[in-house]
Structures are given as structure tokens and as C-alpha cells.
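Reviewers of the previous submission asked for a worked example of the structure-prediction workflow described in the proposal, so we include one complete record here. The input consisted solely of the amino acid sequence. No template or homolog information was supplied to the procedure at any stage.
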Amino acid sequence: MKAAQVLVALSLVCLGCSTPPEVKQALIAKDQGYAENQRLMEQYRELVTNVTERHHQWYRHVQTRLKLNLALQWATTNPKVTDVPELELAKDDAELLGSEVIALIHDIRLKNLPERKGPNGQVLFQAGTGDMSNLLQKLPELTGRVVQRVEKDGQASSTVDLTAFDQYRNNVGALRRINAIIKQYLDIDVTLSRDEVQPLAEAVRTLRR
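From that input alone, the workflow returned the following C-alpha cells.
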């Protein structure tokens, strides 16, 4: 009886403990799908980064022109806007330009331009004492300070949140590792050929005699 059981077991080994090819192919296809999804996500991440960088470049260009024009207005004129109180206008423009730009405006502001105060009575733009020659000489420095101001203002919004892309890459990587472990396990075939089983079968028959 035991010999018969051994023969049955040997037959099962011979017939197959190997993984069906369809299963292995399915695992390969799944891994390829994971890889393709990750590739597409990386491309989308790169696209988002490039578009955001273009947006920031355009933002810096526009803001530099606006702030430089505003600085030159205060350096050469006494700005006023209809329906906007002068105190509020001075306060808003001073906040846009920043202290470093305003300090240079005080140095180049043309003669006879009056001082301008904010709502709390503080002098925000000093009375002008400069001339056009001095203004033209300091124009490159004014441009540089405006650029620095724009860069400083843009730092807060220049960071792109790519956390979702990183999480997706990590998750796909984990799935691919799991898939690889399963495939490696299923690749371990314990199937024996009939030639390898035959000597064992003969030995079992000998025991039965």
C-alpha cells in the first residue's frame, strides 16, 4: 500500500508542480503595466514641473516691469489715482516696492516732488532732492533692486508640491517588488522528468516483491 502511495506521489511530481505558463505570463504583463504607468506618471511630473517653471518665469517678467514702472513713477512724479485716497495709495505702493527699493527712490527722487505719508502719518516717500543725471546713473541699480524684490516675492509660490508623484512612484515600486517576489517563487519548478522518476519507481517495485 505504501509503495502504491509513493508511486502516486512520484507521478504527481512528474506530471507537474510547475507554474502554468499563463500564470507566469500574467505576472510579466502586470509588471510591464506597472512600469508603463510609472513611466507615464514621470512624464506627467516633468510636464507639470516645466509648465510651472514657465509660469514663474512669466510672473517674474511681468512683476519686474510693473514694479520698475512703479518705482520710476515715484522717482519722477507725484502719483495719484482717481478714487484712491493719497494716504492709502502711498501705503499700498510702498508695500509693493519694499524698503530697499524705496531707499534708492529717496536717493534719486527729483527735486520739488513732495513727501508722501501713509495713513498713520509716517513718511513713506521723502521729498525729492535729486536730478535727472543722478537718476540715470542709478537706473541699473534700481533695476537690480526691483529684480531682487520680485525674486523674494516669488519664492513663496515657486515651490511645486510633487508629493503625490513621489507617493505614486513609491507605491508602484512596492507593487513591482511584490510582483517580482511572487514571480521568483513561481519560477522555482520542482517538476522531474520521467527519466528521473523511473529509477525511483523501479526501486519501489523492488520493495514490493
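The longest helix spans residues 21-76. We consider this example representative of the routine output the project will generate in years two and three.
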